[in-house]
Amino acid sequence: MKRIGVLISGRGTNLQALIDAQKRGEISGEIAVVISNKSKAYGLERARSANIKTEIVTKKTHPIREEHDKRVVELLKQYNVDFVVLAGYMRLITEHLINPFQNRIINIHPSLLPSFPGIDAQKQALEYGVKITGCTTHIVTLDMDAGPIILQEYVPVFDTDTRDTLAERILEKEHEILVETVQLLCEDRIRVTGRITKITGE
Description:
By secondary structure, this protein is an alpha/beta fold. It has helices spanning 13-24, 42-49, 65-78, 95-98, 121-128, 163-186; strands at residues 2-8, 29-36, 53-56, 83-86, 105-109, 132-139, 149-156, 190-193, 196-199. Helix 1 (13-24) packs across helix 6. The protein is globular and about 50 Å long. The protein starts with a strand and ends with a strand.
């Protein structure tokens, strides 16, 4: 059984989707640890309620980015983690975290990458006037939101949408494709060649 490490910074809704999927048997892996860079992140309570181990590594305890990431790696290895999920982890990570888990760190982003990378992708989509946006799971690389794409799901943009209404609909799809992506990793079905991913066994 694959062991999963989840990194969070906030309320942990995508983490909750993974916890619920694990309980339903939709993920054939185990969430081994949840690590947060914010000591008061509500996602930590979600993890504790599910009897999942939690760890905190903050800017205050590790102010240097490289040392921060090295500590995160130490913890991930301590819990024998096979792959890592960034679930609302609001930090740019360094090669000190990426290299030990090459092609084994995934992120969920609320747009159809490569459109609207970075923060507040929902607001970007509304300001640009697109009619369709969505969400993307991808392999994490040193370039922000630019790693090989795994899965995408589209969400229509309505004329009446606000940033919040659009974000809520995208979030529903985020939960779906994040669970699906994690299960693909649990089944070792994702192959990465350059910036292209292929899913085996289809």
